[in-house]
């Protein structure tokens, strides 16, 4: 299972990484956003410069609250989103604007942060187009972030399968993709089986992640008659 | 030899160029926003372009081990099209980004009243955001254009040490040297400036406040001109320390005035790309 952090996990992890002035900046930023939604426009891009940046948690095989792919900036931005005094469609439109005008790191922050917000109908309606935009990108970090908690919970089955296939294609490790134990189905296995067959026909290596979904004894290297 | 190309339009270049640049020692670069060879007719196309300068292009550069930063601005040529004027309104959003280390390219193309207005408005934005400024000098009527640019910069109140005036040659360098602004030189295959003339100018003016770039773009240009000029300097007897000053220390010093320069880490890759889950991102066919 991919871990699923809540705000207190992110805060705790950040305290290990940020210095005192970074944490002070974060607390002030959260207060300002809670008081006035428009404050987030200038605070969101500054997350890395002002609070902390880089890896948030050490890589480990142990299960833990915060996924290894999260950066400090991601955590700061996710917390800023949770501080917005909005919900539903209004929250959705604020998040959409942050994504639309965000650089790659801000877009990633939105895609990851969506998973911490209350997913009512308005938010899901606004968030899904952002997830699909991330999946269309060729930036591996955006594709991976699109398949974190929110995307994995709300994408329909065909889009989720295409997303997972794209991850294998781009070399994004499937252990970082949310929702696989619940959502990997026979159709996804069929798609990955076909992909592996295409690779093997071309004399190319088959990515090991294929075997997370496809059962090796059931792999068919050739099209069956 | 480590090289920082302070002015190159990578969106117009191929991954072969990135590879060759890395082999030649390029580890960091700044991509100024400029005109793309074909006129744009709406604010939306600028927004998409700016997005790629703070998103896709740094990602691409990081795959080849090169740190990518950019400058954002409305260029003088398109400042003349009223349909593009709205770009000024979206600039503040982009000037707040991590990868943006200056406002630019600004300046003059045909020295119209519209260009005056847009230049001044963006100098004001630079002062507000405490960012350095990259000024392009015109291809035609260059001397007059350079002098007029220096006047506008003086009036703006932006400190001269935060401004580079680019594409200089033998006839325009003197005025900029006296002004206190940084001197930028674009080394091109046929036009602007070549390696040997550049070496002569550095003999005469020294290497302080000098930035040498390839300004490579979609036109006839060469992304390895930085490295070729560095070798021409060595061949002419310059010390390696002077070469490092021009091709690393100077651009770092200039753009670090933004407070956002991270020349050692491929930008965004440090956050995700190259180190993404400890995985090389060069694999896989896209
Ligand atoms: Zn240029």
UniProtKB/TrEMBL annotation, chain A:
InterPro entries: EboA_dom. It comes from the Bacteria. This is Sugar phosphate isomerase. It comes from Actinopolyspora xinjiangensis.
Automatic annotation (TrEMBL), chain B:
Residues 263-286 are annotated as: Disordered. It comes from the Bacteria. InterPro entries: Metal_Hydrolase, TatD-like, UCP005295. Keywords: Hydrolase, Metal-binding. The keyword Iron does not apply. It holds the Pfam family TatD_DNase. Gene3D superfamilies: Metal-dependent hydrolases. GO terms for molecular function: hydrolase activity, acting on ester bonds; metal ion binding. Belongs to the metallo-dependent hydrolases superfamily. This is TatD DNase family protein. It comes from Actinopolyspora xinjiangensis. The lineage of its organism: Bacteria, Bacillati, Actinomycetota, Actinomycetes, Actinopolysporales.
